[in-house]
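Now for a sample.
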Amino acid sequence: MNTVNHSKTGWVFTGSNGDFCLKQPDRSSYLYFPLVNEGGMMSSVSPKLHGQVTSGHNTFLTPPLSVEDLHNSRASRNFWVYVDGKGAWSATGNSARQNAAMYGEEADDSELEAGLLWHSITRESRKLGIKAEITSFVPAGNDKVELMKVVLTNTSAEELTVTPTAAVPLYARSADDLRDHRHVTSLLNRIYTSAHGVEVQPALSFDERGHRVNHTSYGVFGAAEGGGQPTGFFPVQEEFIGEGGSLDWPEAVVLNREPQIGAGGGVHREGYEALGGLRFAAVSLQPGHSISYVLVLAIGDERIEVAALMDKYGSARAFDAMLQENKTFWAEKVNTVEFHTSDPVADQWMKWVTLQPVLRRLYGNSFLPYHDYGRGGRGWRDLWQDCLALLIMEPGDVRSLLLNNYAGVRIDGSNATIIGQQPGEFIADRNNIPRVWMDHGAWPFLTTMLYLDQSGDLDFLLEQQSYFRDSFMARCRERDASWDASAGSTLQTADGESYTGTILEHILLQNLVPFFNVGEHNNILLEGADWNDGLDMAAQRGESVTFTSFYASNLLDLSRLLRTLKERKGLETLELAEEMTLLLDSLHEAVDYESVSAKRGLLDRYYAAAPNKVSGVRSELALDRIADDLARKAGWIVDHLHRNEWIQSNQGDGWFNGYYNNDGERVEGEAGGNIRMTLTGQVFPLLGHAAAPEQIPQIIAAVERNLYDEKIGYRLNSDFGGIQQNLGRAFGFAFGHKENGAMFSHMTVMYGNALYKRGYVKEGRKVLDSLYSLSVNFELSRMYPGIPEYINEQGRGMYTYLTGSASWLLLTMVTEVFGVKGKLGDLLLQPKLMKDQFDQDGKAAVRTIFAERGLDVVYTATSGAEYGDYQIHSVKLNGAEVTLQRVSEGVLIPRSVLTALPEEEVHLLQVVLA
């Protein structure tokens, strides 16, 4: 990536492990930071400590919020200081007085320091002569707690007497209750005070699950330096703020009122909005002296064992030790992959990108301020794309994940769309909405093929797995009246036995069914939508040419994989469900692929043969014949796309049409001076086999001309004009926002990946650099290090942290840019580094995992040549020369060479390029 003038980025890296600082972070709106652990605690924190604390959709400790609430809501994790003779001051900046002074000379000075999942904000009032440093993190492990340490320092020249009060609103219920019975559900609150804090355990929960006895408990607990307990409590929000007061100017603090509940607590309250209001003893601070406080925000499955909790977390010593533990934990997780190039800023930025797939696994697509939709968990597509990063970072876990994931495939080639909490647990969709995304069947094979290349584990294809079954059939066009939920969610035979098929059978099914599921232009039907969820209003006549090309590539690669199976495993035949042989039409009665009606007719016969159950009879088919059938289908699609979907521009370049709308009209092209073009429509032909070599330069030229914008990078589409009611909701968005013409990181990274794959390294580098440069330009992007879901018309990074594009960028950097990839289990080195990516010593390096071994792959360019002018000259493994096995792509190192090495060490591969 190109070197960026880092002085203009706002934040600055302060070490070598991704730590960064940012002055006056509260002068930028919409900033937030994730704090999470693998036990299910999910928090977010803004520069003023707004954000939310939750363990799931129905268990919010603090009020659920959207990104606008970060600056509009008065509710936050607040820590008040009453300074004798000077008045109230918020250590988090959340007072009416401080907000009013934001743009004046009396504004606080603030500075953020943050690292891999820890967050520290320092705020100082020159007028009051006081400074606060607040550090927050969620400790690694399984405890649902968030910790805060507040250090108050007297920066004046005189003694200060201060009275601290912690004030954290305790929402303590489901997000559904935010506007639906907000007051009524507060009547359920049972509020307890104890020696260290305030706890709420509502009597019942009112949400979509019904009226249930509630067991979950929520609390805010604290201790002063040396273990000092609070001297009193404000457990009821309305009593804390006072009549006419507010959370940003509460009577109890502004007038320094004594709490009604004194030290030791023991007083219960019921039926009110709760507050973790903890009053600490007044203290006199000499100039330069400090005092610290620790707060513990906790969610328990039952009433919280407060004494044990505080014993574990409630001291500065425990806080500091666990903070260090937390830093070590996340550093070890992220540092399994590291980069070294000529740009150290880009190398550290990639640490945050590497963290993002882990964050998406833990948060799903919810529970951060921009991600204020959904109820947690991930969708079908997320499962497979997140595994791309896991194959690089944590490959040991991937086999079982993939195996479980295939249990979500239906016998009609569609799949469950919502992933349950347990491995292999699937749900059709929330609220029983029958919807099929036509691209879903394409992703599993792409991810599985990467796994096979990384592992060489061809036996995985022959593993048995069940199929998902619910009331939907024929790709959700029909209902199965005979289905009984009590019978379970796995496919059964006519005899009532659970049916299983090989993973290869699942893959074939998901790619064969779409081939016949075509619209009037003989491309695969769009159905509910494809990858672009915003194309959701063309379910009847819409077609996705884009993913038709993806399925074509899958069919061809599957054909080749079958021949590899025969060659490497000696496999001559394959058993498939008898009904599936219909889809391999050339094995019995070949269908005319030019005929839409013939293809649809065959698919209808298949649905009739396998109506949400199968006979259980298996047919044994010759592997070669299946491979021939798949290749025939793939070849027909590619020829069809070239004949019917290529748009030759008047400007001398060209591109592929990506879609047909619900009126059966071609979406893309040139008409009346208006150019309609999608980036998605070009990416998938480039990624696979559909784009011919001679078409690639024309596509690149068309993308540069029609979609590249210097301000925001590569747009997802040109301006179509109008709302496109016959295509999708995306076009109701303002142009330049989200799926309508923004720079959508996912497709931009995939475009870069495709260009690298096809040998257009300079062009691919430009694509990745555009995304990097935009992301780190803080003046525009206003985001912390990492990659956003998209960049809007103004250049602001949107929907930060949770995006599948991070997996693709990590994959692209390791396997394409640095060229460390697998080829059916062997290590293939195929670097595509450009001259300026090597440091001043001519070196570029990547740390990664392959064959369960840690590898430091160090490239040294001896000649200083540009990409295309060098090749691999020699390779040393731990100092010993490796005999080179050259292939057309680069150099192969047999897996056996690596598996002979000790597992616990990181091994050095020195590669000389000349």
Remarks:
- The chain is about 25% helix and 25% strand.
- The longest strand covers residues 160-170.
